[in-house]
Amino acid sequence: AAMTTIETQKYTCKTFGSGVVKPFDGSHFYVSSDCPFTFARFTLNRVECDIAIRRGPRGLLAHVEIIINKIKTVLHGGDISVEGNSVSLPYDHTYQHIFRYGIYTRLRSSLLPLSVTWHVLPGGIDTLRVELEHELSAGVAGLCGKDNLAGVMNKLSPEEEAENNCFCFKLKHNACRHFFSYTLDCLRAKTPSFIQICEQNSHSFEESPYIRCAFFKEVAEHCGNTSFVWDVWRSVTECVLPTCPGELVYVEQGAAFVPTLYSKKEASLKMVTLQLYQVQTVCKG
């Protein structure tokens, strides 16, 4: 009998740029503050998970706490600590594993069908992604449980802002229309809302390519490698390619391919399965 492969459905929540959030269920919204936020909090199979984030003055994530079954992992810039002890990668523990994942870093839990993936840049983390392989019937607290901005901003009362010594970044207009003129075949009627989120993402961070490029990359991946923007978005935005270790070269390809690292020194292709998001990010020789 022929074997049938059943792909596990994934439920994804992510934040990128200076405050764009895509919750597990619902559309993108924007909230940017240097206040601490609960990103996702839930209980599954009697195991508690609590993920908290805080952004720094550059808009990137400066501090992330991941608590699973009372074990705390802290991401601070490029440093990782577990239960207060700095760890090196790969880190293997009875309950969780942390390892390099192409240009990303990933934490995979042994207690929950959960993985957390992030990308570190100078100054902070520009992309944080939480993936679940199990639907949460009891719901999710925090930003990942929101389907719009209502309720999220209620947290930012003047009293709480004063208590936490934090603030909401003030909006400043920033044109994103040039980039989105290349995405009309993909976004269509959604273009105005994406332009609004783009301008919110870039406010006060016009001089930061990390903030802009994290957003543009997510949109290009959303549109896919058959869209018009796919082949031109880096030249249009002047977003440089990520660097790879050693002599490996970074290449972006479509979702039909398995993400791969290619070595220059090998005559044949050495394939390392990465499974990075929906769009392949590749290092090759």
From TrEMBL:
It comes from the Eukaryota. Residues 11-187 form the VWFD domain. The keyword Disulfide bond applies. One of its GO terms (cellular component) is extracellular space. PANTHER family: EXTRACELLULAR MATRIX GLYCOPROTEIN RELATED, MUCIN-5B. This is VWFD domain-containing protein. It comes from Salarias fasciatus. Keywords: Disulfide bond, Glycoprotein.
